[in-house]
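Page 37, continued from 36.
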């Protein structure tokens, strides 16, 4: 399929964006010098994403407070583009979905951001209960990990086959791929309920050739129906415009116009309805 005026000819659902207001809801990791804005709003996201053809997006919580979770779910409930929220997991006794998943929250899933924990994830409090609860309610469990934890993620997925588990940033981010990472990613992808976001991979130093190699690996292991596009905006805006993220991703893909990759997988997992159902033509 051809592109027109810089837009893809397939529908785009962005599976990974961040909204925040650090003055209203402090973020523990936020500090001066990161090159990030203090406010990341729906309006600013739409300004850069809609010209690229984005029709829907999923906002992933970046902190771990109930107040921020309420603000985020209210923002996504009110918007026609950034329409779904994934809340950050903060263990809480008696609350399988964690402290931020307040009663009545309209959430698409919960993210366990746990790179500081053990390689086998055995010390993440309540992780199995979280996976059970999300699977029972048809929601997604997201994992933000370091590469050494991928084998643990594979084991977790095998214990919870009815829960869709989504790996952020291929479990790699800006790190360098190596044999250990590939082995862990292969083990994770072997689980039928394992999915991954092709997100957070662009950097000032990663070349197009390196990104293409990552995309080939991701498509080989997950195929398009378990893989999805994520911009990681505004983190990505430190080095690339939104249009550049879309263009660089498309150049890297073995199947550049796959509807499953650009929208189908995210639509199925997160519940972003399409105005016109699309079929992936396959390889």
């Amino acid at each position: 399929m051809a592109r027109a005026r810089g837009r893809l000819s397939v529908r785009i659902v962005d599976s990974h964006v961040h909204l925040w207001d650090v003055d209203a809801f402090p973020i523990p990791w936020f500090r001066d010098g990161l090159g990030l804005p203090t406010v990341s709003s729906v309006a600013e996201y739409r300004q850069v994403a809609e010209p690229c053809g984005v029709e829907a997006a999923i906002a992933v919580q970046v902190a771990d407070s109930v107040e921020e979770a309420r603000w985020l779910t209210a923002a996504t409930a009110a918007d026609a583009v950034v329409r779904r929220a994934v809340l950050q997991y903060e263990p809480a006794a008696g609350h399988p979905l964690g402290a931020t998943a307040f009663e009545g929250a309209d959430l698409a899933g919960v993210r366990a951001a746990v790179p500081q924990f053990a390689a086998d994830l055995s010390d993440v409090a309540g992780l199995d209960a979280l996976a059970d609860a999300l699977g029972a309610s048809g929601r997604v469990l997201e994992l933000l990990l370091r590469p050494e934890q991928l084998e643990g993620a594979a084991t977790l997925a095998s214990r919870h086959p009815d829960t869709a588990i989504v790996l952020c940033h291929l479990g790699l981010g800006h790190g360098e791929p190596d044999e250990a990472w590939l082995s862990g990613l292969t083990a994770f992808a072997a689980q039928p309920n394992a999915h991954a976001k092709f997100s957070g991979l662009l950097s000032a130093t990663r070349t197009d050739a390196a990104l293409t190699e990552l995309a080939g690996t991701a498509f080989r292991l997950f195929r398009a129906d378990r893989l999805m596009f994520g911009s990681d905006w505004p983190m990505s805006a430190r080095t690339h415009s939104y249009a550049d993220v879309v263009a660089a991703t498309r150049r890297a893909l073995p199947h550049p116009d796959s509807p499953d990759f650009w929208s189908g997988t995210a639509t199925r997992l997160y519940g972003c309805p399409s105005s016109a159902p699309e079929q992936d033509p396959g390889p």
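The longest helix spans residues 208-222. Flag for discussion at group meeting. The chain has one domain: 12-270.
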